[in-house]
Design brief:
The chain is α+β, with helices and mostly antiparallel strands and 292 residues long. The chain is built from 10 helices and 9 strands. The longest helix is centred in the last third of the chain and has 16 residues.
């Protein structure tokens, strides 16, 4: 992959909009920041349901189609006619700095928030382009992946469906996104250990025999549940909860669910962007709904 020209050269001190246009010309999707956060949704999308025809709930990768600055990372664009449009002018007047969508440029930012995280990265990760931040460093790799916050203490991954502040070109040569960084986004078994109460499901009093005739029945049910979560295109959190509820209503009272089955469901949910906490909450709420 060819690294964007914008990361290879310095930019002069420019206004936020001029900086944004320079970055966009080099292939980096940009958006204005109000301090460290994006601007709020435009008037058309402030109510329910949002009017945006792009990705109003930011559940899946894709651009926002609103004429105004809207929907955080989804507003990022390389189109100079949008960046310099009258609709964006008021945002640029208030903007403190510029952000970019790393995944949209085929990049991943490993955001190291303190000295301990930097020390870990220097011992663990292959060298790449480094950009100093207020408290730590951004390590930028070539290649996009899923964004995940808190993969370890002081370490966030910003790529698809995320934004990072533009803090300058940094130093060093960008290298290919290594497997060790991709692996950070795959939650370790702690995601299941964090909900031990959801792993051991009690049987009804007096019922010690599983009513399901073969393990194939259970495996097929888990596979169907995984597919239902994977196929969700909107309302992912609701889909995860309802799927967990369906699985527990069928298999939750006989004690046949194992840690491996639950891990498969949690993994499918996290692949769709659910956090470990959301998975635990959805599982706990489904159990409570059924009185388990």
């Amino acid at each position: 992959m060819t690294q964007p020209a914008v990361i290879r050269r310095d930019l002069p001190a420019l206004s936020p909009v001029r900086t944004a246009l320079e970055l966009a010309a080099a292939g980096l999707p940009v958006l204005p920041l109000r301090g460290k956060v994006p601007f709020g949704n435009c008037r058309a999308c402030a109510g329910q349901p949002p009017a945006c025809g792009g990705r109003p709930n930011m559940k899946t990768p894709g651009p926002c189609t609103c004429p105004d600055v809207c929907h955080a990372w989804a507003a990022a664009t390389t189109d100079p006619s949008v960046i310099a449009s009258p609709a964006w002018a008021s945002a640029w007047r208030e903007a403190v700095t510029v952000a970019y969508h790393p995944g949209g440029a085929g990049l991943t930012v490993v955001d190291l928030d303190d000295t301990a995280a930097i020390a870990w990265a220097r011992q663990t990760l292959p060298p790449t382009r480094i950009v100093p931040t207020t408290r730590g460093e951004h390590w930028i790799y070539l290649g996009a992946m899923r964004s995940v916050n808190g993969v370890r203490d002081g370490v966030d991954i910003k790529s698809t469906m995320a934004y990072a502040r533009w803090l300058g070109p940094g130093i060093g040569t960008m290298t290919a996104l290594p497997d060790i960084v991709r692996a950070l986004a795959v939650k370790e078994p702690a995601t299941v250990r964090a909900a031990p109460q959801a792993i051991t499901v009690p049987a009804w009093a007096g019922e010690g025999v599983c009513p399901h005739r073969t393990p194939t029945y259970l495996d097929r049910g888990i596979a169907m549940a995984e597919q239902r979560i994977t196929d969700a295109r909107s309302a992912v959190h609701t889909t995860v909860y309802r799927t967990f509820l369906a699985v527990l209503s069928t298999h939750g009272r006989c004690g046949c669910l194992t840690e491996a089955h639950i891990a498969r469901l949690f993994t499918a949910a996290q692949t769709k962007g659910e956090s470990p906490r959301h998975c635990i909450d959805a599982w706990t709420n489904a159990r409570a709904k059924l009185g388990l």
